[in-house]
Amino acid sequence: MVEISNGSLTGAAPVLSVRDLTTSFRVGDEWRSVVKGVSFDVAPRETVAIVGESGSGKSVTSLSIMRLLPQNASRIEGSVKLNGRELLTLGNEGMRRVRGNEIAMIFQEPMTSLNPIFPIGKQIAEAITCHRSVSSAEAKAEVLRLLDKVRIPNAKSRFDDYPHQFSGGMRQRVMIAMALASRPKVLIADEPTTALDVTIQGQILDLIKVLQEEEGMGVLFITHDMGVVAEVSDRTIVMFRGEAVETGTTDDIFNRGKHPYTRALLSAVPKLGSMGGHERPMRFPVIDIATGETRIPETEAGGVDESTRPVLEVKNLTTRFDIHSGLLGRKSGAVHAVEDVSFDLRAGETLSLVGESGCGKSTTGRSITRLVEPTAGAISLDGYDVVNLDRIALRKMRRSVQMVFQDPFASLDPRMSVGSAVMEPFIEHGLGAKAEAREKAADLLERVGLKADMMHRFPHEFSGGQRQRIAIARSLMLDPKVIVADEAVSALDVSIKAQVCNLLLDLQQSFNLAYLFISHDMAVVERVSHRVAVMYLGEIVEIGPRQAVFDNPQHPYTKKLIAAVPVPDPARRSLKRNVSTDEIKSPIRPVGYVPPKRTYREVSAGHLVQV
């Protein structure tokens, strides 16, 4: 373990001081340490980031500070002091008064933190009345002040709204308002932006910066996103296998990091604008954590034969979902999820669909595979007229197109071994005997970087990155021409994301696959795409070669997406992007609504922008 420097950059006395924190869990008859001797300080108005991948111990560190771990199965040792007062020896009642009052916490998924059966105003008011003696009218006035502070529009009218009536970004703002209700001295933010769209992420980061200055809080920011770390933190602690392997100012960590794991994390971060001079997608560098040496060099992926006929052609695709209301359930409107979308895709090509949640990109992918029924338009895939296929022909068509979803754990049956899961499509489509299926599954598992002898294991025995590899192997069992990758790497740690993206590029070259890559991660999209289509409110507002779209964005929404991407450069820490706090507009339209006919102008060869 390295020597930890704990001095704050502000020179102020620390508000939170952690020394030799060791957390162990009972496994059978023994105690197993998952956090080992971690020490750090957080001063007022200072942001300290703890970074590392899943399993590094960073979230357990925060839960140990808050004493939220189960008492009968965990053991916390060392010292945690808040303004000089030891928290680890406080009684349960004393600790309850500290939580939410002097130390507040924001979790990764706000929907699991908010109670779905209570209005958000009541939930925030509860956080106030638990710690302060105030009337209900005073509590409501304070809640409205907090909602205004976290930039929720029309706060007064939304006091009685329920969590499901808010977007993901607005729910996270509600959680921040709740965390700030008692004006805490320390705010612990545990992956608060990981699941959010890039523009919403930018808003939340800006908001935390502003509120920190206004309230004088110390912030402990836990994340695996090095771009976020560069933009928000004063000092950074790098955790690996439960230990703090390197610590220092964020500038030192990014520019003069010494530990191999620190260099591995930094090298795997996709940097927006790093593709200058490269027309084709580029593989990510992957560093061996043990030696710090590059194992996979940055190399260009394959090109596309423009003379070939597209393997997928989409013309004027429209997908709407009817809304029924009233006693008789009459149609009262429709969600215009996809509206008049057209594009094509060639063998060996990656077309990325980008945009925020609710823009229609996932519905586009599901419409192409007929997992949802299109309302209008034409889809030609590998010679099939997809929209007009009957049930038997549709089943046959799906051998040509497969999907890889964001959450591989939800995609795999937990009761089925991974060998059976990978073999299942081959057997269900009657493509050969079970022995042939087993042989092909073993070969594909090897191709995606796993071992054939893992076939008897179950999904819970694999890491997230390994499960995504299994999902990719299963998608290849039917020798598809097109793979729809729907946020396939969004939930992965940064180095695992690099490995899976490299795997996808390798498989594309080996099998001449066409990818429809659906993502909101602009830095990854820049790295893996041949062409990019930007979607907003169900429509493509800009489409063109990757280099043209990123180097010369024309539509205001494209510029907004690119401007919101966190850049792994500590020099930007004082900058605020001032991203618009508007929510994405609603795609719900009344009965009889006829959308305007859109026109496009050609900026350069193949680069079209909506007028």
From TrEMBL:
One of the record's GO cellular component terms: plasma membrane
Protein name: Glutathione import ATP-binding protein GsiA
Pfam families: ABC_tran, oligo_HPY
MF GO annotations: ATP binding; ATP hydrolysis activity
Complexes and interactors: The complex is composed of two ATP-binding proteins (GsiA), two transmembrane proteins (GsiC and GsiD) and a solute-binding protein (GsiB).
UniProt keyword list: ATP-binding, Cell inner membrane, Cell membrane, Hydrolase, Membrane, Nucleotide-binding, Repeat, Translocase, Transport
Protein family membership: Belongs to the ABC transporter superfamily. Glutathione importer (TC 3.A.1.5.11) family.
Gene Ontology terms: biological process: peptide transport; transmembrane transport
InterPro entries, per database record: AAA+_ATPase, ABC_transp_ATP-bind, ABC_transporter-like_ATP-bd, ABC_transporter-like_CS, Oligopep_ABC_C, P-loop_NTPase
Record localization: Cell inner membrane
Signal peptide from the UniProt entry: none
Membrane association type: Peripheral membrane protein
Substrates-to-products reaction catalysed: glutathione(out) + ATP + H2O = glutathione(in) + ADP + phosphate + H(+)
Its job: Part of the ABC transporter complex GsiABCD involved in glutathione import. Responsible for energy coupling to the transport system.
Top-rank lineage group of the source organism: Bacteria
The keyword NAD is annotated on this UniProt entry: no
Domain named ABC transporter: residues: 16-266, 312-562
Enzyme class: translocase
Enzyme Commission number, as recorded: 7.4.2.10
